[in-house]
Amino acid sequence: MVLNACMQNGGNMTRILAIDAATEGCSVALYQDGKIEAVRSVSPQGHTRLLLPYIDDVLKKSGLRLSDLDAVACGRGPGSFTGVRISVSMAQALAFGAEKPLIGIVDLEAMALRAHKETGSQYVVSAIDARMGEVYLGIYEISENVPKAMIPEAVTAPEKAVELISGTLSGKKFTSVGTGFGTYPVLSESFAGYVSPASDNLPDAVEIAELAAGAFADGRGEEPENVLPVYLRDNVSWKKVSEQHA
Fold first, then answer.
1. What are phi and psi of 105, to 5 degrees?
2. Can you say where in the cell this protein is located (predicted)?
3. From CA 91, how far away is CA 133, in angstroms rounded?
4. Which CATH number fits domain 15-106+202-226: 3.40.50.1170, 3.40.50.1360, 3.30.420.40, 3.40.50.300?
5. What is the pLDDT of residues 80-130, one digit of tens each?
6. φ, ψ of residue 140 in degrees (nearest 5)
7. 108-190 sits in which CATH class?
8. Please, how many CA atoms are within 13 Å of residue 33, restricted to the half-sphere of its CB?
9. pTM assigned to the model
C-alpha cells in the first residue's frame, strides 16, 4: 500500500527532504514553503529499492532539485538494524552530494508527534518491538508540537518498560504508539483506563520533516558524517561514511 499526500503545514521558505526506513515503513517527505509532499509504503524488504524512486517522485512534484534544498533529514533509529543503516547512509550520501547539512531525528520522537497530532494527547509513549523480548521505549511530553523526552530513550524488557512508564507518568493518561504494544500486551494491560492507542504504529518522514524544520530554524543542522544511527543496543558498531571503505 502506498499513500501519497500533500499536507498543509505552518512554515517559511525552508526546504527539507526527509527519509525514513528504520521500521517496516518506508517514507519520503519534502517540506517546502509551508507544505509537505510525501509518499509512504509498508514494505519491510523493499527499502533500498523504493527510497530513490520516492525521492525522485517528491522532488519532481515539488519542482525542485537536490541543490535547491536547505537540508536533508532522516529517521536515525532505533528500529531494525538494516533499516536504520539504510536510512542514515542514504541521507548522508544525499547530503554530501548536495553539500547540505543533515538533521537526524529519533524515530520514537517522530512517532510521538504523529500520535499527538491524531489524538491531542499531552503525553505519548512510543514502543517499537526490538525483538529478543525487548522494546525500544520513549516517553514524551508534547507542547506546541514539540516532543520532549521525559527519560532517555532505552531498550528494555516489557516488564521494566511498565515500571518506567508508571514511574514517569505517575497515573497520567497517555497515548500509546508503536509495534511494541501489540507484541507485548502487558504494556497496555498494565495501564487499563489510562492508555488509548494511536491508529498508526509506524514512524513517518512527514513528522521527521516537521521536526527537522524546527531543528533547522534553531541552527541544528550537522555535517553529514556526524549524524549517526541510534541503535540503543551497545553491541552494534557503525562507521562514518568516510570510514566505510577504508
1. -120, 135
2. Cytoplasm
3. 30
4. 3.30.420.40
5. 999 999 999 999 999 999 999 999 999 999 999 999 999 999 999 999 999
6. -130, 145
7. alpha beta
8. 5
9. 0.89
